[in-house]
Each structure stands twice: as C-alpha cells, then as structure tokens.
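Pipeline run #58 for the internal structure catalog. This entry was flagged by the ingest filter as a single-chain record with no existing model, so it goes straight to prediction. Upstream metadata was stripped on purpose; only the residue string is passed forward. Reviewer on rotation: M.T. Logging verbosity set to normal.
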Amino acid sequence: MTDCSGENAPSLIDVAKRSHVSTATVSRILSGKRTKNDATQQAVRKAVNELHYRGNFAARALRRDRSDTIGVIVPQISNPFFASLAEELEHAINASNQEMLLCASHMDPKLERERIVSLLARNVSGIIIVPCDEKQSLEACQMVSQIPLVQVDQRVDMEDSDWIGIDDTKAMKLIVNHLAEQGVNTLAFIGSSINNSSAHNRLNNFNEQALSHGLSVRPEWQLLNDYSVDWGREATKQIFESSRARNESMPDAIVCANDLIALGVLDFLRAKRLSVPNDIMVTGFDDTLYGRLSEPSLTTIAHPVARIAEEAVRLIALSHNPSARTYSQIALMPKLIVRESA
C-alpha cells in the first residue's frame, strides 16, 4: 500500500501554475492524451521536469497506457469503518496482483478533487472511491472518464459508474424491528448532517420504519451533526436536558447512524448513571472493533466489508471492457449484530 498524501512534494496545482494551464489540462496530458496545442504539452512537460513532480509516477504516466495500481479514496482513515474497508480493499487488490494507492479526502470535496487529479496523474488503472459529498463530489468523479470508477458505500448520482454497498433501507428495518420487538415506544435518532448518501438514507429510513411501527419520535430527538464520539456525547446531553426541562422521561432507545456516535451516547449515559439497556437502549451502525469492546457491547449493523472489497475490485477489472457490460448498482444484505446495549 502506498500513501498519496506527500507533505512536501510539488502538487499538480503547482505544475498547472508553472505551465499556466488548468489542473484538468495537466491531468489529461500526464494521462497520455494529446492536445491540439503542442506548446501546451511542452509547457506541462517542462514544468513537470523543473518541479520534479511525482518523478517516477509522472514519467511512467507519459510512457504507459495503464499502471498496475488502483487508487482508493476514503473520507477519513481515522474512522474505524473506513480503515477496515481500506484494509479489505488492500487484500482484494493484492490478490489481483495489483497495488493500492490510498488517499483520504478528509471530508473536503476540494481536497477530494485534488486526490483524484493526483491519482490520474499517477496513471492508476482504476479508482475506488467513497465520495464525501452527495452533490459536490459529482464533478470530481466525472473527471474519471478514461479509467474505471467504482463508488463504495456512499455515492453520487452518475450513470457511467458502478456502486456497491449495503442496503440502508433493510439495515434500518432490522434495527427498528428489533427495538419494537423489545417493547420500545419512543425513539431518538442521532446522525450526521454531512451531505452524503448514507447520512440521508439512514435518517429517512429510520423515520419511515418508526412510522410503520407507530413509534413516537419527537422533532427534538432527531439530532444531526457529524460522525464522532464527541457529537454522540453532546447530542445525548441535549436529549437529556430537554427531557428534564419538560419533566419527562428519556426515549426508550437511541438509534445512532454509526458506532462512533453510539460510543459517545454510551459514555454520556454512563456518566449520568443511566443503565443500558435497562433504562435506555442504544444501537450503532458499522460493527467496528470499538463497538464490540465497549461496555456494554454495542448492538449494531455489520457490513459485509470483505465482499464489498472483492466486488469493487472485480468491477474495476470488468470495466476495462466497457462495451461488453452495463454498470451495476449492488446493494448487499446487512446483518444485525445483537449485543448487550439492546
């Protein structure tokens, strides 16, 4: 595995500034495409040489049609789910006798675009991406036109791209069905306001499932910010304080959009000496190692991460013959892991 986030190396933007063209033009030239203006090509090649831009990778890009490297872009390597996904992708890519070049967008669409441009300049044979923004990532993903692009977990709406992930609708149905069977009557939801497909799907499906079971969800019990332990802790504090102000009980269960949020929820409830699951139930999403080791252990949704990785690499290989195939949207079945928290 190689990391594409070099701190001091000149960037593609530096090459573009030096040669007085756009980053898209630099990317096209380094990927082997010809331009109508020979002077532009010469200026870019001169800037590459003067700046020593990605030396070996740029030189290889000018010589070869395709490398044996697949680029992978995830929103956050620090997020345990994306770390697990990256590890499984590395296994699958290595099994196909290729190498993985891993990048993080840090939830920033502009940085995500730069990562894509950098990967194209390195002449990767395909890109597997978890788009960080449902709308703002679209333009960057559309730049990947000459090599395969496979979206994983989250996605943007584009026709000429594969997607593979879990079925969020079925996942939330599993969670709410389970809680209803436990006898809960009131629910809260803590999720993310980040503009990605997973955040939207989990909130919308939660509301649909709660309504179908006749469960009560107050507007002040639907709280959105980000996928973090700190947000889980702060959101639960808001629910706790609003309940006390009304002299009312806490909800019977709190459904969290990922395990990190749920860990923050458990931490706050523990500090207030509220028993989980006796006083209140808590569920997560992603089945991370931290959720398995938490006290109490976390009821959550497991992704078939290894299969997602294998399918993503298979789709990359399949895409090299686009005339012989159509693009796939593959939603895999989630699994509810029942543990102590619910």
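catalog note: The two ends are 38 Å apart (CA to CA).
catalog note: The chain is about 45% helix and 15% strand.
status: ready for reviewer M.T.
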